[in-house]
Amino acid sequence: MSSSKEKATSQKPNVVFAAAAALVLVAAVFGLVAPGTFAAVANAAFSGITNGFGWLYPLAMTLFVVFSIWVGFFSKYKNMRLGPDDSRPEHSTGAWFAMLFSAGMGVGLVFWGVAEPLGFFVNPLGAEPGTGDAMRFAFSKDFLHWGLHPWACYVVIALGLAYMQFRKKQPTLISSLFTPLIGEKGSRGPLGKVVDVCALLASAGGVCTTLGMGVLLINSGLTYLFGVPQSMALMIGIIVVFSVVYVTLAVAGVEKGMGKISNANIIIAVAVAVVLFLVGPTVDILNNLVEGIGAYISSFVADSFKMGAFGDHDWYANWTIYYWAWWIAWSPFTGAFIARISRGRTVKEFVGGVLFVPAIVCMVWFAIFGTLGMNLGLDTAAAALADTATSLFYVIAQYPLGRIIAMVMLVLTCTFCLASATGACTSLGMYSENGTLNPSNRTKVVWGVLLAVLLAALLLSSDDGLGMLKTLSIVVGFPFAIISIVAMVALIKAFKGEDTVAIEAAYKASLTEGDSPEKDVPASADASAVAQSANGTAEER
Prior knowledge:
By secondary structure, this protein is mainly alpha-helical. It has helices spanning about 5-10, 15-35, 35-55, 55-75, 95-105, 105-120, 130-145, 150-165, 180-185, 190-225, 230-250, 255-280, 280-300, 300-305, 315-320, 320-340, 345-375, 380-385, 390-395, 400-430, 440-460, 465-495, 500-515, 530-535. The protein has a single domain, classed as Amino acid/polyamine transporter I. The longest helix has about 35 residues, at about 190-225. Mean pLDDT is about 85; it is low at about 1-10 and about 520-540. InterPro entries: BCCT_CS (IPR018093), BCCT_transptr (IPR000060).
């Protein structure tokens, strides 16, 4: 175990933390002091990136899918352990899948579960609104945005972090992924620090986008269900209350408590989905799920590369490219969590679980909520979309037990937000302090306050709140898209140095000996688990 001197050294302010925090603070203050100018600058950056580099996102995300499938099922490294050859999984397969399941669930699914498919149903590309073709378009796009592509993005970062941490004994920092290309000295030098700053900025932006959707959803839910007047003051009040709670939880270090909240989130989400499946148009949901998957698969290659080059550029910029940037921005945050729970897994097991399990869950979720909305008809769908954040409550209220379920969804949104924000405070602190297991309370508090202030600035600088959240994802996700591509190349180079003969021999031996997990823990899926367990051996090195 490291000495107190080593721990103190790891928790001293460093240039990565100072630079990232300063940039976020400047952006937040800018947005609060001059929201109009801030919005103009952000929108200019948004236009510049989507017009000049929109091609990068579909290319990068599709490369991630190809890489994930190759490395997991066709490469000679597929049986390599994420750890020493004699390592075994730390968690049972059931617990591991449960954690992956919850990692794929969050405010985004709650916010967009009804709004996105209804938006495509009412305003489809190349189809008449409200028709079967519009439904096909809606489900194929929903499944694209929440299917294999985003989880392949996570595979690249999480696989790289798990490999470098458990097999190469490197700290859990994004800069460690560059070690195979520029050496350990280079990854710890100026370039590595720039990479880690970008990771912090991307994480902060991704978290703020998700929390912003949660605040909008809570605001609309209170208005729709209880008649509370919808206002910016109410949203700022929600942010203040939330920030006090999640900063307190992060400082208190109540990881077990947050784990219980995360497990409760999973149970509630599954229970709500099952109830709605039963009280809603069950047969239509199953039909739409099956045919939607078919539409997704049949158009997979073409849709993977679509970015509006032949028209409809604005639509793709506001939907597909936005989603790709959002997932990329989340990858350093969620990737660390996935990496930490995957020690001892083979690459094949890892890719199979991370790539397919959450994607299937997301497809089922959208099939249920999308069908609930579409089956009410075009006029009702259009009425629900009058306020994007209210559409969830509007649609659910049309079904049996609707008001009760809507209130449960409101509670679920609150707990999702708290869980994500608490984890964000601590994991951002981890990245800020050289991957330390227990970042200082000072750093966690700083990030908690910065997230709240930046979120308030984003909502104040946008007429509908949602526009600036999308803009932020694309702007902060851009540099990390490049980082992720380079990290993928570095990972391939690192794998080439592996002894594949020894890997296969060890794998065959494990089949004979059995592959029981070394230990098991409750299936906590909240990202706060990252902060407490990620880089679990870093302080011992």
